[in-house]
Amino acid sequence: MTTEKNISNLPQSDDFPTERVILGKGAPMRLDCGVDLADFPMAYQTYGTLNADKSNAILVTHALTGDQFAAGINPLTGKPGWWTTMIGPGKPIDTEKYFIICSNVLGGCMGTIGPASINPETGKPWGLDFPVITISDMVRAQVLLLDELGIETLFSVIGGSMGGMQALEWAAAYPDRVFSCVPIATSAYHSAQNIAFYEVGRQAIMADPDWCSGRYLEEGKKPRAGVAVARMAAHITYMSETALTQKFGRRLQDREAVTFGFEADFQIESYLRHQGSSFVERFDANSYLYVTRAMDYFDLAATHGNGVLAAAFRDTEIRFCVISFSSDWHYLPEDSRVIVRGLTGAAANVSYVDVVTDKGHDAFLLKEPEFTNVLGGFLDGAARRRGLA
Amino acid sequence: MTTEKNISNLPQSDDFPTERVILGKGAPMRLDCGVDLADFPMAYQTYGTLNADKSNAILVTHALTGDQFAAGINPLTGKPGWWTTMIGPGKPIDTEKYFIICSNVLGGCMGTIGPASINPETGKPWGLDFPVITISDMVRAQVLLLDELGIETLFSVIGGSMGGMQALEWAAAYPDRVFSCVPIATSAYHSAQNIAFYEVGRQAIMADPDWCSGRYLEEGKKPRAGVAVARMAAHITYMSETALTQKFGRRLQDREAVTFGFEADFQIESYLRHQGSSFVERFDANSYLYVTRAMDYFDLAATHGNGVLAAAFRDTEIRFCVISFSSDWHYLPEDSRVIVRGLTGAAANVSYVDVVTDKGHDAFLLKEPEFTNVLGGFLDGAARRRGLA
Questions:
Q1: Does ipTM come in above 0.85?
Q2: Which whole number is the average pLDDT over B57-85?
Q3: B190–A contact, CB cutoff 8 A
Q4: Quick one: pLDDT at residue B13?
Q5: Per-domain residue ranges for chain A?
Q6: How far apart are CA B194 and CA B64, in angstroms?
Q7: Is B270 among the residues known to form the active site?
């Protein structure tokens, strides 16, 4: 395992503590677009201890704006990782029982190669010369990571949102290397509405003159306004209408009456603006383009089933637990039912729970007791069947 | 009635055929923000003939991006007006029975005063010096227009989306001047989610350097990219997820396979980009800011009922027909039910129909037989009660 320093695609610093490995050494990785990627860095974190027969590994796959710091403390923010509700001692993804791996996705901006990385041929950031990647490519790179770690089979692959797409891709493409699979708040394909929302975000970024046709890093600029608008538009889809009403309603921001102007009179405006402006500091604009594009291209039935989702899961031995949230309108419960129907069409071993909550898509990142219980129960049961004490 | 030419706020030309009147002559109109507006132009169109006792007038109120050309041919586009499905001989809003008035809203950009109009004090376009207006202000100006036309009482006020807000405002503020009221696909207040979506649009426009802090007209520029992104974001909310899936799904745009790039691979992307770029040609960016802000500020219960919606309708004699669309997620059927509950709390005369359709919010502009029948039936019945043959 190589420790690669001075990677360019880190948001705040080029030298933060994370595990890193160089993949595609000797044998380059062929991307779906046809480009070969060689000697590329992938950043990851692990939690817990790998057991002697290497049978207790769980791959946690992150969402669009997530990273490898799923548990513990994120060294860049000093705050808890994004899934500390689920991962830790005694938690459903129990660090005392399992060896948990979480890697930054291909195309990301937290240490894995992406458009902000240096293109060795030019010595400059890749920008839009970076090859367009897919969810399949992200998973291919994760497979290489597991090979490096000497792990043949995952006890489980678990992810929400785009993480769920990766989990499904693992199940369809590498069924012999996965014992159980938990796709959460996700879909087997991007719908027209999903594509539409991310296209708005991409257009907002590309419309920002400081995007500089993708060369903003070379120009010493940052498309702040465009990225902020993209984040604001996406963020609305992560919360339910009910949650927005409960959390903000029409309450005013630090004022007694509206100001008859375009300042943030309403709390929801102030909140969204903050979401937008803070996101700029922690995420690379071009990564946003590439990772959303990978989601748009995701269509498991087309890629693995010749258009039939059940065919993508033919003869699978994996145990599935599909979880959706009743108020999620980003990836609808119906999207999860499509997955369940596909699995049922393959007579697969599948449980499905639609967690009743008003928290919307973001519920998978929040404390939601029924969700916690379902995931914990499934993993406990699967662990017994796997022979994990 | 004065015919005012050379109004500056016309999108393509300063001399297109429309009726115009100068309002606030002698007695300026006091806006909610406290500013007095004097001698300001309002553009409008009429269809059909006013009867002898002036009892057959219908005010049709338009939505955010609508205009006064509701029926007939729009002289600027050469295409049918935006509500020819509803207005015309033998149609539900029958031009052979009724005298229909439709005016461009205050703050608009089709001949009524708005931020693109010339500020007489500076000789330059108002830009952000234009006072922030409200739905109440829009209706106040319509009242002045009716006064000019010598019409004391409206047989009906009918509008969808923001037009429905104006219809509700008429009912609450001028109950003695309205016989019947048809709020369609609307809400008695803007929810946090509504505010959020329009705030994204405003931020997209204001982030565009060609917006020039609102002075783009003086600078000879146009915030094209920002307006396009704003329109794209809003447009998604006008269609249901089902409609997007049926109309576009994941179908590709003039290609056999994805291109691994950021062009419009998908039809939905191509469609949205077209919606965005064509909107720039027909709508003023600052008008978009002002009119969306007016909607955000709309809260009928707060303005007219001290927080209680039923109180806003106390003792009303108006006959109401509230119409929603089952798949509308921009203004939800629940928003209409809130209106109905408020009216019921005032023991008002109210019918409510939730039209089952998968066309989403845009259904009010489309051919939707149940909707046509409901509106036609209600108007026929109301006309008999009004003594209109």
A1: yes
A2: 96
A3: yes
A4: 44
A5: 19-190+298-386, 194-293
A6: 13
A7: no
pLDDT of residue A16: 83
Residue B136 to chain A, least CA–CA distance (Å): 13
What is the SS3 assignment for B312? helix
Nearest Cβ partner for A299 among B34, B241, B250: B250
Considering the segment(s) A19-190+298-386 as one domain, its CATH architecture is 3-Layer(aba) Sandwich (3.40)
Cβ neighbours of residue A231 closer than 8 Å, sequence gap 6 or more = A201, A275, A276, A279, A280, A283
- Is residue B339's pLDDT more than 50? yes
Q: Measured at the alpha carbon of residue A35, what is the angle toward residues A31 and A40, in degrees to the nearest 5? A: 75
- Cα separations in angstroms, B274 against A256, B228, B278, B281, B285: 41, 9, 6, 11, 17
- Averaged pLDDT for residues A11-21: 73
Q: Please, what is the end-to-end C-alpha distance for chain B in angstroms?
A: 30
C-alpha to C-alpha distance for A18 and A10, rounded to whole angstroms: 11
Q: Which CATH number fits domain B19-190+299-386: 3.90.550.10, 3.60.21.10, 3.40.50.1820, 1.10.10.60?
A: 3.40.50.1820
Between chains, do B244 and A33 touch, taking CB under 8 Å as contact? no
User: In which element (H, E) is residue A205 found?
Assistant: helix A192-207
Rounded CA gap, B342 and B336, in Å?
10
Contacts of A360 in chain B (CB under 8 A): none
> DSSP characters for A176-188?
GGEEEEEEES--S
**Contact between residue B200 and residue A236 where contact means Cβ atoms under 8 Å apart:** yes
Dihedral, A267, A269, A272, A278 alpha carbons, nearest 10: -90
B241–chain A Cβ distance below 8 A for any pair? yes
Q: Is the pLDDT of residue A298 over 80?
A: yes
- The fold of the B194-293 domain, in CATH, is Rna Polymerase Sigma Factor; Chain: A (1.10.1740)
- What pLDDT score does A14 carry? 54
A227-238 average pLDDT score: 97
Q: What is the DSSP letter of A131?
A: P
Residue A381 has pLDDT above 80, yes or no: yes
Classify residue B308 by burial, with Cβ atoms within 10 Å: 0-12, 13-18, 19+. middle
Please write the tens of the pLDDT for every residue from A24-71. 998 999 999 999 999 999 999 999 999 999 999 999 999 999 999 999
Distance between CA atoms of A170 and A138, rounded to whole angstroms? 10
Contact call for residues A59 and A48 (beta carbons, < 8 A) = no
